[in-house]
Amino acid sequence: MSHQVPCPHCLEPIDPDFHGDCPHCGKSLDNANPEGALPFGTQLAGKYTVGKYLSADGDGLCYRGVDNEQVRFVRIKEYFPVTLCNGRSPEGALMPKAGREVLFKTSRMDFKDLYDDLRRLTPATGLSRILDVIEENNTVYGVEESEKGMTLTHYLSLKSRPLTPAEARTLLQPVMEGVALLHKSGLIHRGICPDNILLPIDGTAMLTGYGTLALRTGGSELKSQLYAGYAAPEQYSAAEFSGRYTDVYALAAVTYRLVTGQTPVSAPQRRVRDSLESAHSLEAAVPTYFSQVLSCAMRLDPAKRMQTVPELMSALANPNVANAMFETGENQISTKKILGAALVVIFVLAALLLWSLLNPPGSGNGDNSSASDQTTVSSPAPTATPETLTYPNLVGQKLEDVEDSDLYTSFRIVPTEEYSADHEAGIILSQEPEAGTPVEGDTPTIEIVVSKGYPIMPDIIGFTQKKAEEKLEEAGIAQYTMRIVENNTEFATGCVVMCTGENGVRIEAGMPVDPSVIIDVWIAGERDDTAQVSGSSSSSSSSSSQ
Fold first, then answer.
1. Residue 411 DSSP one-character state
2. What crossing angle do the helices spanning 244-260 and 288-297 adopt, rounded to 10°?
3. Is 527 helix (H, G, I), strand (E, B) or coil?
4. 175, 151 in Cβ contact below 8 A?
5. Taking the CA atoms of the chain, what radius of gyration do you get in angstroms?
6. What is the Cα–Cα distance from 428 to 406, expressed in whole angstroms?
């Protein structure tokens, strides 16, 4: 008998060469996927079962799939560039078009590199997890976790009013943190929009919809997929470069949609005539500073746009930060310019003071002045060079101390958080630019990484699954799986028995938990009365022998 696999509909075990209807759920197991797509039930690497075809874009096809080993649903994306392929062979291998073989291989390599990088980077806050990358059928498959929930687009269709700025910030906070992590790793998403933001039933928002540079660029060798209203202007031409500021534009556009209820005017249309209204003009409840931040982050010229996600996050959350970035009117004076002017004034005063000391009243005007005095008086005042303004060292300090100190009021501090096992929450781990670097640019900005510490394992032993999940979420622990353990009546049915981490190591209450480690929470199954009798006898015998 062949090894069984989960049904792509209900996950119950069935024979891999199934046909007809599933004996468990009654749904059809026959192939209904469109021609050219992988047939329903195809096995990949002996680990995954291909289910229903879902969608297609310029660089691939998406399927609902099943992880045969973990018995869970996954999402499988197959590299299948329609502009470079002639379909697939009877054995399932992709066949590149004549004369396009090199470009096919190059694009396939880009696809694989992207998913390899994402697999190493995830799981991470705000990013949908890539579980596996497979090379088979002369192509590449990216296997992504499949969360139950809805897209942000669907969620907004159910809302009768726009979100408040506070609600929008809370909803998008994990996504922005995820994008900041992508940027730190040298990756740009380029496809951020409500369609690609998922809202899991039990969890925070996360970003999906990963795609290669060619997919997200107009005029590339692939059939591009750009999201009107959210794609930045530079994405519409292969001759322009995208960067971190490209995702900043998209995140601001999504925020604009949340707080106004309207999709922003598309970038190509704005280039012809920029008719994008400010968020405040569309929704009076949106504060002016919040609206100004969104406008800055959605400027058509990337060089004039807000450049980083931490800047956007900080400015949207704190009006003081936003007001430091922008001043009302066109004649704004930056902090750097103010400091420069102050240094010039100090220099002039120092020169005058030095001159007055060297040339007291009456000296050089009387007949008794010596030649040396005359030489000194007639020589020009020495040139004093003001000390170059440099960035201070914030590493190792507490964020709250830095924010409360008057020493750093001339600098704009932009924090992001990162888990750390070595530092308590609130300690600054790193900064950019480094301490001692000369201040450059119009606004002295310091991007800092602040420790979030490590979440502490709560006491969940003996609690029900629902209560245990609540306590884990409260502790900030999101990476866990619930598993059933055989119950010999030693435990209460449906309650937590133990928790384990990597290599089955027990995790006790009060221990710090590495957020990248998936915790296995073991739940007691139904009581086994037979096990109770044999277990009791065994226990008694053991006790008497001792």
1. S
2. 140
3. strand
4. no
5. 31
6. 18
Compute the average pLDDT of residues 435-441. 81
Cα–Cα distance for residue pair 333/351, rounded to 1 Å: 26
The HSE-up count of residue 43 (CA atoms within 13 Å, CB side) is 14
With pLDDT > 70 as the criterion, what percentage of the chain qualifies? 84
In the chain the domains, ranked by start, together with CATH numbers, are 5-145 (3.30.200.20), 149-325 (1.10.510.10), 399-451 (3.30.10.20), 465-545 (no CATH)
Closest CA to 151 of 195, 206, 201, 208: 195
pLDDT tens-place string over residues 173-204: 999 999 999 999 999 999 999 999 999 887 78
Residue whose tokens read 């299948």:
80
H-type alpha helices, 261-318: 267-272, 279-282, 288-297, 309-317
What would the pLDDT profile of 108-143 be if each residue is shown by its tens digit?
Answer: 999 999 999 999 999 998 999 999 999 999 999 999
Task: Find tokens 């919040």 and name the residue.
Answer: 290
User: Does an H or E element contain 216, and which?
Assistant: none
In this prediction, residue 154 carries a pLDDT of: 92
How far are the Cα atoms of 21, 321, 402, 439 from residue 409, in angstroms, in the given order? 69, 11, 9, 14
Q: How far is CA 400 from CA 213, 362, 368, 397, 418, in A?
A: 40, 56, 64, 9, 16
* SS3 track for 344-392: HHHHHHHHHHHHHHHCCCCCCCCCCCCHHHHHHHHCCCCCCCCCCCECC
Give residue 346's pLDDT band: very low, low, confident or very high (50, 70, 90): low
End-to-end CA distance of the chain: 47
| Residue 299 φ/ψ, nearest 5 degrees | -65, 145
